[in-house]
Design a protein that fits this description.
elongated, 11 helices, single chain, 314 residues, mainly alpha
Amino acid sequence: MNFKLILTSFSVFMFCACAQTVSAPEESSTEQKKEISSAEEEEKEEISQPNYPIDSAGNIIEPSLKTIIVSDDGSDEAKEFFYGQEKLDFLVQYKLANDSKEQAKEMEDTLQKGLDHFDIAAKSDKWFVPATIQKGNLYLVTAKTTRNQECMVKEQVDLIVEKLSVIKQTIAYYEQARAVFKKGIDKAGKKKLQDENCQILEEYFINTYFKECEAYMEMATIYRTHPLPDSAAVVNEYVHYEGASMEDAIEMTHEDLEAYREALSSKSDEAKEQAISACESGVLEAQEYNLENDQVEATKGLLWLLDPENLALQ
C-alpha cells in the first residue's frame, strides 16, 4: 500500500468543518495576579464554574430529557400525533447497518412520515407544543441511530473516514432538530402558550447544543488518537517500490510521518474549537431566551471544561 496515497486520501476525505476561532486570553503576569483580590477571585469562580455534576472521568453528565405530558382527546390532531408517535417508536428500536441502502431509505422514509403526522397535529394549539417536541425528537432519534450504526470497513484509513462521516451526518440531524425547537419556542411565545411541555421544549432546544458539542469532542478525540502508519513499512515502500536508498527512505519517512502527525493535530484542534463554538452558542441562546434548566447548566459545564474563561460564562 502506497503511504503517500494513504496520506493524500486521508487529507481529502477528512471532514473539514470551518471552526470558529476563539482567541486565547493573554496570561496575566505574576505581579498582576497578586493584585487581584481574593474577593474578585471568588466572584470570578462563582460566575464561570457551573454547578453541575461531573462523573469519575471528569465528564459533564448529560441530563435526561423529560417525557412530554399528553392525553388523547379523540380529535383528528390527536390521531395524527399518535400516528407520528408510532413512527418515532419504530425509529427508537431501529438498527442501521452501515452498508444497507435499503435500511437507510426505510429510516429516512419513516422519519419523513413521522414529520408529516406531527406537522398536521401541530395545527391545533393544544397539540402544537407536544407535536413540535416529538417532531424535533424524530431528528434526535435518527441521529442516535445513525451514530450507533455498524462500521463494516476494516482498513484504518477507511475506518476513520467512515467514523467522521457518521459524526457529520449526526451533527446535521442535531441542527435540524434545533431549528424545529427554536421555531416552536418562538411560535409558542406568540401564541402565549405556557405549560410544562413548553419548559420541556426549551430543554430539548438547549440539549441539541450539548449533543453537538459532544459530537465535535468525539471528532477531536478520533483525530488525536489515530495511530500513525508503521514507519518500517513506509521505509520499505520507498526502498522497494520507489528505488530510494535506505538513508533517503528513512528521511522521507520521517518527513511524511511528521506531516501526518501535524495534520491530525490540526484537525483535532479545529474540532475542539467547533465544540467550544457549539457550547458557547447554546449558552448565549439560553441567555437570549432567559432559560434556566438542567440542560443550560450542563452546556455551561461543557464550555467551562473546554474554555473556562469564555466570555459567555460571565
